[in-house]
Structure formats: C-alpha cells, structure tokens
What does this fold into?
Amino acid sequence: MKKIVLALCLCLALIMPFQTVTHAIYNDTTAPLDLVINDTYVRPSQPLIMYQNTVYIAGRSLCELFGATDFSWNSGTFTVNYGTNHAKITAGQSYFTVNGTTYDLPKPAAVVNSRIYVPVRFAQKTFNVSVEWNQGYCNVVLKKSGHTVPAKYVSDYQADHILWLARIVQAESGNEPDAGKLGVANVILNRVNSSQYPNTIYGVIFDDKYGVQYTPSVDGTIYNTPSYASVMAAKRALHGENNVGGCLFFANPNQGSWVARNRTFYTQIGNHAFYL
It folds into this structure.
C-alpha cells in the first residue's frame, strides 16, 4: 500500500510542474455585446465576453474575421502570423508581442472552454486595426481600411435594424420597464418573421395595409432619439432574447380594443397586454 501511495505522489510531482495555470474569466454582463468591423455588424464563431470592463474575443474567431489562416494554440500560447506580423500571447499574461515588441493589455489572456480568449486590444497591433468602445450601443468597433468581413460572419442585423427597432420601442414603451420594452421589440420581430406582415423592421413599423398599425409612424414620435434602455431592448431581442413567445400584438389592457376582443391573451408587462 505504501508503495502505491509513494508511486502516486511521484507521478503527481512529475505532472505538476508541467500544468498550465490559466487566468479564469467569466462573462459578467448581460448587456448585448456586438462587434462592428468597418461599420458592419459581425457574428464571430464564438461569443464575446465582458470581464471586469474588458471585452474578450476568442483568438480563433479574431483570425477568422480578418482572414488569418496561419495561427496555432499550443501549451497555453497562441501565435498568429498575419502579413509581416508575428504575434504571440500566453494565457495568464497581460501583454503580448508583435515582431518582438511587447504591448500591454488591460487584462490577461485566458482559457475559456478550452479556447484562448484575448482582450480585443490584441487586434490593434496584430491586425493593424483601430479599436474603439461605443458605450451607447455596447459595441466594440474595429476599423481597417480596405477590409471586408467574410460573408458567413456578417450578422443578420445591422445598424439600421437596431435603430428602427429601438425607435419603435422608445415611441411605444419609453416609460415601460425593461421587460416591457423587450416585449414590444419581440412583437415587431415576430411580425417580421410572420407571412402576414412585411419582412423588414421598417416595413412592419410603417405597415398600413389594414390601417395604421403603430401611431408613432404617423404622429412623428417614431423619429425621436431612443434611450439607452430602448437600444438595449432592441439589441437583446435581436440577440434572440424573447419574453412574449409568438405574440403579434400589444395593447393597453384598460381599453376595449379590437386586439383584446379578438386575440388570445398571453401575458401583461407593465401597461401593455400582449396577445398571440
């Protein structure tokens, strides 16, 4: 028995020095983060992560978005060859090198689900891009002259979709709780996906085939600047968050509307009742 224990201890002693210690991170925000490259909203193969006010992206995803094919992940170190740039970053370290020059990062690189995640600032010197943070839209904005994002990574929503959805959310539910704003956003998207209505957000908002659907489209309030909360509700809905199922209508529950008399009640949020 003592020999077995001794052997196990010896094995552990041999293994421990070769273990890679990585810096643990987790997504500590529910805000709908987006990556925008040259004014195009993109959808990386792995989601962005916000950790302690720093946005992280999977190293492989970053390479895919900029067309880098010469990269590797080995023993905790991620290397990328892009044009004349040779970049290297190691999990747990808050710096990286490009062609031998060291650059600091706000937070260390980390391993998440067996993937190397790097602060987006890694892209600045590695891929020769500018990096900005748009607080009003929770967007990381990268710009590189002449670069076109591969079509398969282009998001199915763009800036105009977010703007118009946020505008109708603001106009119809500006004083409602966040859940109510999200519900209104999802009703609009449900109509977009329904064969009964136009197939664009703008088209649904201004639809008048059976009479004006949304009064803000005719009284001018649709053009008011949406609040941060309305923008976030629009983005959350576009990211797939849904709290009203397949509802196609919302109305004031205290008014005997056609909707209340003819559609199936689903739920009430704030001053709006939602109907299928």
In short: The two ends are 69 Å apart (CA to CA). The chain has two domains: 34-153, 159-275. The chain has nine helices and 16 strands.
